[in-house]
Amino acid sequence: MPVETVKMKARGFICVNSHPEGCRRNVERQIDVVRGAGKRAGFKNVLVVGASTGYGLASRIAAAWGFGAKTLGVFFERPPEGGKPATAGFYNSVAFHDAARRGGLYAASINGDAFSDGVKKQAVEIIRRGMGTVDLVIYSLASPRRTHPKTGVVYNSALKPIGAPFTAHTIDLNAEKVVEVTIPPASDDEIAGTVAVMGGEDWRMWIHTLLDEKLLAPGARTVAYSYIGPSVTWPVYRDGTIGRAKQDLEAAAAAMREGLGQNAAWVAVNKAVVTQASAAIPVVPLYMSLLPRVMKAKGLEEGCIEQMARLFFEHIAPDRTPTLDDARRIRMDDREMRDDVQKEVLRDFPSITTENLLTSTDFPNFKREFQGLFGFNVDGVDYTQPVETDLALVNP
To answer: Which residues are known to be catalytic?
Structure first.
């Protein structure tokens, strides 16, 4: 097995490799947060679709160490190959498996295309063999494309406004400069493709598969994740192609409630955090360079794991009834969207330039957190030391 010193490789701002020890430390820190909150009764068997990074990984950790649940994670990550390190999501999942095994927790994973019928069939077999029935399904899938399992049509998502071009300031992450960007409006095909990839159809397919196989426990719950964000992002997000897909996601939740019960399916609107996906959305890097500073000053800041612990413990646990907005969504972005928080962030937003980016925002921490997603710049890791990179996922 190769043991080597892994140095960060980047194209401008974006990391193109990952560090297994840094990823392990990230996972263990999140486990410590949940473990510190105490274990409670509730979920026994949890399926997480999109389980290797961000909110999906945090959800799996909350289920396992918050409730002692057996978990099945589904994701699509590149394993180590030919001396090349794996993706961060793969190393995160290896770290999760290792920690679960040490803690006496059942953990199984499928590394494959979650949109496909084949992966759904694998999940059915694993659940039936090792879990029995599932009482919680988390849908946290993020993908740029989807091959429809019935038609074979390949759909691509697009990050664009609808109806008119969108011009705004953002950060060129490669050059680390504040720039103006203009995005042309989406075509009808791009809107439809984004809905097909990021909407609710596949979520419903997962639930219907489990129902057909009689693998949903009585009273089972399911939650999918969304984002709304501040007004400065609405033309390209809430009112753009992604927003159209999220409307479809909410319609899927409503349809599933009709069949499963009014306390069975929800969309949770989460807070903005630093992720690979969020960094690609124009305006968001600049917004995320301002938001944490304001929220930390007010004692409101949460990362993925803190937010998922709050979601699981206070809203979706079997003995809880979630607090919903008028559209029947769980608003985990309640602290981010407080009037006093948004007022301060949006007050400063227009004044940020390349010249004051490093002094008037938290951009250095945004960059550090982004590198941390790949296991680099993580506290407690000696990057001069060789590490094992050829790690494997081992199912029970």
So the answer is: 237
The set of residues, in sequence order, having a beta carbon less than 8 Å from that of 208 and lying 6+ positions away, is none
Q: Are 324 and 334 in contact (CB under 8 A)?
A: no
Going by C-alpha positions, the residue among 180, 44, 161 that lies closest to residue 105 is 44
pLDDT tier for residue 162 given thresholds of 50, 70 and 90: very high
Q: Is residue 396 part of a domain?
A: no
Encoded amino acid at 257, one letter? R
Whole-angstrom Cα distance, residue 281 to residue 284? 6
Give how far Cα 178 sits from Cα of 16, 207, 235, Å: 23, 43, 19
How does residue 12 score in pLDDT terms, banded at 50, 70 and 90? low
- pLDDT at residue 276 tops 90: no
Rounded to two decimals, what is the model's pTM? Answer: 0.96
Which residues are within 8 A (CB) of 21 and not within 5 positions of it... i.e. 6 or more apart?
375, 381, 387
Residue 393 lies in a domain: no
Residue 98 pLDDT class (50, 70, 90 cuts): very high
Per DSSP, the chain holds a count of helices (H) and strands (E) of 13, 15
Residue 322 domain-assigned (yes or no): yes
- Domain that includes residue 182, residue range: 8-388
Query: Is residue 149 a contact partner of residue 63, using CB atoms and an 8 Å limit?
Result: no
Whose structure tokens read 């095994």?
A: 101
Domain count, the chain: 1
Pair of tokens at residue 52: 């290797």
The CATH number of whichever domain residue 36 belongs to comes to 3.40.50.720
Contacts made by residues 360-367, CB under 8 angstroms, sequence distance 24+: 361/286, 361/289, 361/290, 361/293, 362/289, 362/290, 362/292, 362/293, 363/171, 363/176, 363/289, 365/292, 366/274, 366/285, 366/288, 366/289, 366/292, 367/13, 367/176
Q: What confidence tens digit (pLDDT) does each residue in 306-354 have?
A: 999 999 999 999 999 999 999 999 999 999 999 999 999 999 999 999 9
Q: Which residues in the chain belong to E strands, given as ranges?
A: 3-4, 10-11, 14-15, 45-49, 70-75, 107-111, 134-139, 145-147, 154-156, 166-172, 177-183, 216-226, 265-269, 330-331, 387-388
Tokens of 69: 């649940």
In the predicted structure, residue 3 carries a pLDDT above the cut 80: no
Q: Report d(CA 345, CA 169) in Å as an integer.
A: 14
Q: Kindly state the DSSP code that residue 313 receives in the 8-state scheme.
A: I
* Local structure of 136: helix, strand or coil: strand
Residue range 364-379: mean pLDDT, rounded = 93
